[in-house]
Specification:
The chain is built from four helices and 14 strands. With 373 residues, the protein is of the alpha+beta class. The protein has three domains: 105 residues, Elongation Factor Tu (Ef-tu), domain 3 (Beta Barrel), CATH 2.40.30; 54 residues; 131 residues, Helix Hairpins. The longest helix has 64 residues.
Length: 373
């Protein structure tokens, strides 16, 4: 008896075949729902926040890097700092050989002392001249009295000689005495006038001495400044960089010896496209992402916008009046000030690249760029 073939495997196959399409549809449906949710979340974020965010990666950290150089020339005697060393405001960084400048200071102080002595001598001479003037006035009084007496004697002798009461010789002596008294009186008056004029001369000499003393003091002060300039000090708290100073080298006045990078007060210079500036205004919050720390966020606020595009400040500004014109989107520098906690020299350093995101949802308080009057 021939056995009939079993149909169970075929039935099992027929029953199991619909399962893969159903699972696939479920997976596709799940992915579609997830995609719709993600799209909805993105759309919601864009509508509520994203469309107000202006972003650029053309941004760099900035700081008031100060180049240190001497105001006077001289040989470097001592370098007090090393590369990348932290310093405080007022710390001595470099000392120059100050012997020449100290010698000039001593010479200037000697000139001041000499002028002060000359002025003191003129003061004493002036006091003496006042005494001479007093003596001349006393001489005038004495000669005046003698002149009056001799005048009376002369008149009396002239009357007596007419009556032969006195001799002619006596009358002549009286007349001579009177004329002598007149001459002495005139001489005393001339001496008083000369003494008074000499007082004017002394006053002029004192004015010249005062002017010379002021000049000597100015030269002394300059010499003192030059001695002080032989010590180069840190103008602020910061870190030493780009040190070129070496002991024994000759430093010209104004030559760059090292730089001081500030320890705080960093900012960001971000170059935004011109079509991103419509809603920007000072005071808006800014988020900074630094390439050096990809996972850390820094905060700041928009401080100001440049009055012209960056190309206008280049060495060769663009000239579009000639040749074929190709429109290029211009960029405008925007200054972003970091918050005090984030603007400290640490991971952020001047020159590093960052990404800036400006939240323009804040209503403008003042125009971002002042209009021309």
């Amino acid at each position: 008896m021939t056995s009939m073939p079993s149909l169970e495997p075929d039935v099992a196959v027929a029953v199991s075949t619909p399962k893969p399409p159903l699972l696939k549809r479920l997976i596709l449906l799940t992915l579609a729902i997830a995609a719709l949710i993600c799209a909805g979340l993105y759309a919601t974020h864009w509508w509520t926040a994203g469309r107000f965010i202006e972003e650029t990666d053309d941004a760099y950290i900035g700081g008031d890097v100060t180049v240190i150089g001497p105001k006077v020339a001289g040989y470097i005697e001592e370098v007090m700092v090393s590369d990348n060393q932290k310093v405080k405001a007022g710390d001595v960084l470099i000392r120059l050989d100050s012997r020449d400048y100290r010698a000039n200071l001593a010479k200037a102080e000697g000139a001041v002392a000499a002028q002060e002595a000359l002025l003191a001598n003129l003061d004493a001479t002036e006091q003496l001249q006042h005494a001479v003037i007093g003596q001349a006035r006393a001489g005038i009084d004495a000669t005046g009295a003698e002149t009056a007496r001799s005048r009376d004697d002369n008149a009396r002798y002239k009357r007596l000689v007419g009556s032969n009461a006195v001799s002619v010789e006596s009358a002549q002596r009286a007349d001579a005495t009177f004329k002598t008294a007149q001459a002495l009186s005139a001489r005393a008056q001339a001496e008083l006038l000369a003494a008074q004029r000499q007082l004017n001369v002394i006053d002029t000499q004192k004015q010249q001495a005062r002017a010379a003393l002021m000049q000597a003091k100015a030269e002394r002060d300059l010499a003192q400044l030059n001695v002080g300039y032989t010590e180069l000090r840190a103008p602020m708290d910061g870190v030493i960089g780009n040190r070129r100073a070496r002991v024994g080298a000759y430093a010209q006045a104004g030559s760059q010896q090292l730089s001081v990078v500030p320890a705080s007060g960093l900012w960001v210079d971000a170059n935004f496209k011109e079509d991103q500036l419509a809603h920007m205004t000072p005071g808006q919050p800014v988020i900074i992402h630094a390439d050096v720390l990809s996972g850390q966020v820094f905060h700041g606020h928009l401080d100001s916008l440049a009055p012209a595009s960056g190309s206008q400040f280049s060495v060769l500004p663009p000239e579009n009046a000639t040749g074929n014109f190709t429109k290029i989107v211009q960029r405008v520098p925007v200054r972003i000030v970091l918050d005090p906690a984030d603007g400290v020299l640490g991971h952020l350093r001047p020159g590093l690249s960052v990404t800036a995101e400006v939240d323009t949802r804040k209503e403008p308080e003042t125009p971002a760029v002042a209009s021309a009057p």
